[in-house]
Amino acid sequence: MPTLLQLDQVSKSYGALQAADQLVLSVEEGEALAVIGPNGAGKSTMFNLITGDVRASSGTVRFKGDDITALPAHARARLGMGRSYQIPHPFANMTVYENLLVGAIFGGHQTERESYESCAEVLKITGLVDKANVPARTLTLLQRKRLELARALATRPNLLLLDEIAGGLTEHECAELVKTIKAIHAQGTTIIWIEHIVHALLSVASRLVVMNFGRMIAEGDPHAVMNDAQVREVYMGIPAS
What we know:
The protein has nine helices and ten strands. The longest helix is centred in the C-terminal third of the chain and has 16 residues, at 171-186. It is 37% helix and 26% strand. The radius of gyration is 18 Å and the shape is globular. The chain has a six-stranded mixed beta sheet, with helices on both faces. A four-stranded antiparallel beta sheet has the order 2-1-4-5, covered by helices on one side. The chain is α/β, with parallel strands linked by helices.
């Protein structure tokens, strides 16, 4: 499959703090990639560097073969990047459907007519049809998580970045969300998913990356990586024998 995203020696520093340290990563079209690591490992920083929420101190970000290192976040969204955030921040006084229209028109650069149809389809995929006309502020946590996912999907992304979208959910709610993410991936959307709920990740991802102190310390088959002695020590606190 063609390469969709490439990070080449990408770093981000804040004074003496190295939040991302020479990251090298290739993601193929249609892949589902999982990312784990302890708090402060640099996972969200990597997402920010991919989406343009922060600028890299050095290195190159390529998307669909083009150098996008200098592009702002809104331009990257229009190229086909969608992202959810750890804490949902919908437009609280807008309806669910209106939230999606904002994403479709301003993030996905769709016409008004296009956005009506595409947003209706996203409501179906994310299980929010019956909530389309209610204010976003009235939603439960699971529904807000679904709306966060739906807003990203409304931009019609080629690459969907999920940042701890299952956090705070019950086991049942997490299982329902995983079903939705699997369905999105099955339709051809490339996914990079940061999550602490490892069993959810392993049910979707075909490759796993582990980060620590801004660096990638392991990469490969998810089950093999989880059994790596260094990963078990860093991520699960299990001393290497």
